[in-house]
Amino acid sequence: MNRLHVIIPAGGVGSRLWPLSRKDRPKFLLDLRMSGKSLLQETIDRLAPIAASFTIVTGRAHEQAVRAQIPQGLDVTVLVEPQGRDSMPAIGLAAYVIRQRFGDEAPIASFAADHAITHPQVLLDCVERALEVAQKGYVVTIGLKPLTPSTAYGYIAPGEPFEKDSPEKGSIVRSFVEKPDEETAKHYCEQGYLWNAGMFIMTAGTLARALTRFHPDMDTHLSVIGSQWESEGFAKTLSEEWPALTKIAIDHAIAEPLASEGGVAVVPATDMGWTDVGDFDALAQISLEGQALRIDSSGSFVRSLTGQKIVLVGAPNMAVIATEDAILVVDRNRAQDVKHVVDHLTQSGEEELL
Fold first, then answer.
1. What whole-number distance in Å separates Cα of residue 354 and Cα of residue 350?
2. Which among 44, 92, 167, 193 is placed 20 to 30 Å from 73, CA to CA?
3. Cα–Cα distance between 249 and 219 in angstroms, integer?
4. Which of 200, 172, 196, 170 is nearest to 267 (CA)?
């Protein structure tokens, strides 16, 4: 295909993966799965067969590390956002630059830099189907069939399929819903809801028209920035216009309001092997690990960057992470709470550990 313009927002610090993920080496730059490649490199590799270009949006602190991880032979643009403004400005910046380069009808798709997918061909097949729907003017997302009633993800409520005998070709989205409690998650799964993995496919013009309607100020500023692409004044214009952009996620900015009008579609995926590598419980499910001795410690995950032998006795379902300057021990059922460690270190002024 090679006609899709891929956008990869690469930001955040991955606080739930401390002490592996730090502010100067966030999770998307790390080989967390011990595959020999970072999560960012894996993202580029899996999408390269269908990509005409890549546009990566990252922060100034990570620009050089991102550039160092880009493989040769691809059309890759790295855009540096002056400050983090959440996903809509980051994706919008890339989209308006792509629009300037390739026009309104350029198909664009946004994929996170820190997700893992073990069956990439399933993703590519879904994107192919999503592109067909996107050409009709929809914003399209890929919804994942839930493996469990998870409380860690938002959900998508799909409507009737476009083609009754071919539900894989997609359907209108009835609504997006936030992360639920356990009982609500069970109800969603019973009702056929899908996980929201934050993958969006559309044309550059569709995105611009949505912003013109729902956030006209953002459209104005991004249009000014995009118009200066490849000019000597681009960096200056970006720094001047960027602070005026609203800090908002793409879901809230355009996906949810468009869905209420029937303007968003979802293509379902069943067996992509997708994981949002958001905490150590998720990482334990998809990663290889170093040597460790476990005695009566089933379900425990160990990762050591120090070369030390780690031995667990009577410590089931734990995650043990050892780096040169910190050791974390956490019950995998409380993996999401690791973010509170980062909050505590910030409040106590222990910047050297962040």
1. 7
2. 92
3. 15
4. 170
Asked whether 84 and 9 are in contact (CB, 8 A), the reply is no
- The 10s digit of each residue's pLDDT in 61-74 is 999 999 999 999 99
Instruction: Look at strands 107-110 and 4-10 and give their pairing.
Output: parallel
Say if residue 54's pLDDT is above 70: yes
How far apart, in Å, are the Cα atoms of 183 and each of 187, 288, 322? 6, 32, 35
Partnered with residue 265 across adjacent β-strands are 140, 172
Question: In the predicted model, what is the mean pLDDT of the chain?
Answer: 94
pLDDT tens figures, 102-157: 999 999 999 999 999 999 999 999 999 999 999 999 999 999 999 889 888 999 99
Tokens of 184: 């609500």
Residue owning tokens 């005026």: 244
In the chain, DSSP assigns E strands to 4-10, 51-59, 76-81, 107-110, 115-117, 139-144, 155-161, 171-177, 194-203, 264-269, 274-276, 292-295, 301-304, 310-313, 318-322, 327-331
Q: Amino acid identity, residue 310?
A: I
Q: How far is CA 300 from CA 174, 274, 283, 327, in A?
A: 40, 21, 12, 15
Cα separation, 274 vs 14, whole angstroms: 18
d(CA 45, CA 131): 19
CB 332 within 8 A of CB 284: yes
Residues paired with 141 in a beta bridge:
200, 266
Prior bond to 243 cis, omega within 30? Answer: no
pLDDT greater than 90 at residue 184: yes
Helix/strand number for the chain, H first, E second? 12, 16
DSSP helix, strand, coil percent of the chain (3-state; round to 5): 40, 25, 35
The residue type at 247: K
Spatial distance between the Cα atoms of 226 and 252, rounded to a whole number of angstroms:
23
Is the pTM value of this prediction over 0.85?
Answer: yes
